[in-house]
């Protein structure tokens, strides 16, 4: 039985290890090590590894780590030095990734030096390099650097867009530490733009990651920011719990300035929730820090918090003195601090209660103005309500009604937002309950594993008791031998010896009874272990079969999806080839067929004229045949040129247009002016797009040369983002737009514009020339640009 139980336990442990191994291999991503020298390498260790490095690329990577380490220690000049050395090695050995890391490190140093434009330029260059090499982690770091710089310049919307990119790439790289930083920065940007719901969402995710990493400093920083968000949205209970949790987790070397701000926020929460004794303790703690720092911000915090506390305790006169002193410090602060809004509101309320209505109205107006500039809706609503009460106190009913309406309007908007937020909260609650059910299932599995471990411990205890029993039996045997020896040596003690033997026999009997009872108990325990082992094995086998079944189904689904994709790609290629053949056929039919039909008709008329007497008429028709044949050859040449893949580049299009236009305008004395963006020469376009662009511009130049009587013709082509802008204009006689009939030339131009996905715009007036413009989406086949070191 013992051997069977031991076999079951071994089998259970084997399946547990196998399942854990499978889960680890199946887990997507995973944290990637970003340091060549280990996560805790010091700067001297990095320099040592740099000196013994065997390759130049490794030296470059170590210089990047050194530059980052110096940045973390705020040694910016040393960071710049390492970055320059990194650039030198990367250029000498054509290490493109090293150049990307140089721009990333230099951008970080420029960010700390408040050199914003340089930081953005370095970030953009690094993004270009890392995009071409598919480096997700470093690409995410570049986007985070750019977002932080834009946030420092108060461009919070732009910063949020780049933070999204940073989070996407860092999450895909699997680096949890930097993902937590990016989520924290993202939530912080929403806090400064007063989008508290988004700020709370991303800061909550960042706090969970900090807790998973068990990093006290990250928990303190993110928890403090999340508590500030809750305080800003007036969720006092959540703000108090979160700020208290952050303060409990603060590290020993926490920054005093940051700690002072967190303590001030927590003291304000305690005051607003009527916990005056706790608020007093927190205020005293932050006053100690202010004594050490001795700055204006600390003085303002002390007086503000004292004023709030006295006001809440009903001591309006004393509260007004502290709040007035805090309010007057705004001039020394050098800038309008966000706390001035709250100070002005509380000061106005105290003055209103003391019948100092004019002063209260002035402070309420200031608070309303500041809160509107900060887009702080709740403070604006409070200021409007207080202004309504103040004007009502001096019987100015019109102004009181005006501000009460403004208050009611904002309040209704907040109610609507709260309703939407309630819907989101219900959805979040459903997801939380779903996750809680999954957690309970995982706990059940863990409890089953714990029971298995307890069974192993019981088995070990049983073996220990068996060893003790064998030891006791050996002791009994030694005791018998000793008694027999004494009986032979001392016959006079035979009676006492027999008495000892009797006692020993009784002890042995009791011991055997105890052993028998223990064996019975062990048998029962063994049965329990066997049953538990069978249940566990069955459960593990069931889960394994379910996993295998799902894996097979997924494999089949992926195979079918690949086949479907291949079929769709093949069909699309066939359709594209068919469309190209149709377009070529239509062009040949429309352009060449019509011309050949004219040639046949004029040939027949000329033959009839030659058979008669009118040779002059025959000559006229022969001229028509010559003209149409020449036109047909030109059109056939254009079609052949358009379908030739050697002419895919924009440079060939521009060259052919210039050749045609110069030949056409040389004999008419018309000056040509080409303004072509040089970057277009690097692009290649599809056959259809190339043909439509060329023929449309050719027709425009042809019409201007033949009919406009112009002295100058201008052609402009440029690309902005994904849009191509084309413009053909002349300084000729122009025409009246309302009286102009659409001919074949303009009709063909409009048709080609539609094929390009655009609309042809023609503007003209008598004696003011003609302007033809076209704008369409332009996506080249390939861009012939590469980064060269």
Describe the structure.
Among the domains are: 142 residues, Serine Threonine Protein Phosphatase 5, Tetratricopeptide repeat (Alpha Horseshoe), CATH 1.25.40; 138 residues, 2-Layer Sandwich (Heat Shock Protein 90). Helix 6 runs antiparallel to helix 7 and helix 24 packs parallel to helix 25. The N terminus and C terminus are likely disordered. It is mainly α. The chain is extended, with a radius of gyration of 44 Å. It is built from 26 helices and seven strands. The strands form two sheets. Strands 1-3-4-6-5 form a five-stranded mixed sheet, with helices on one face. A two-stranded antiparallel ribbon has the order 2-7.
Task: Just give the CATH class of the domain at 33-174.
Answer: Mainly Alpha
Radius of gyration: 44 Å
Uncertain stretches: 1-33, 35-39, 422-426, 782-789
Mean pLDDT: 77
Features:
789 residues, mainly alpha, Serine Threonine Protein Phosphatase 5, Tetratricopeptide repeat, Heat Shock Protein 90, 5-stranded mixed beta sheet, two-stranded antiparallel ribbon, 26 helices, 7 strands, 5% strand, extended
Summarize the structure.
This protein is about 75% helix and about 5% strand. It has about 800 residues and is mainly α.
Blueprint of the fold:
Blueprint: H1 2-26, H2 43-52, H3 56-72, H4 76-92, H5 96-112, H6 116-133, H7 136-152, H8 156-173, H9 176-192, H10 196-213, H11 216-232, H12 236-248, H13 256-272, H14 276-293, H15 296-312, H16 316-328, H17 330-333, H18 339-353, H19 357-373, H20 377-393, H21 397-489, H22 494-611, H23 615-643, H24 650-665, E1 671-676, E2 683-684, H25 687-707, E3 712-720, E4 723-730, H26 744-755, E5 761-764, E6 770-777, E7 782-783
Parallel strand pairs: 1-3
Antiparallel strand pairs: 2-7, 3-4, 4-6, 5-6
Helix pairs in contact: 1-22, 2-3, 3-4, 3-5, 4-5, 5-6, 5-7, 6-7, 7-8, 7-9, 8-9, 9-10, 9-11, 10-11, 11-12, 11-13, 12-13, 13-14, 13-15, 14-15, 15-16, 15-18, 16-18, 18-19, 18-20, 19-20, 20-21, 21-22, 22-23, 23-25, 24-25, 25-26
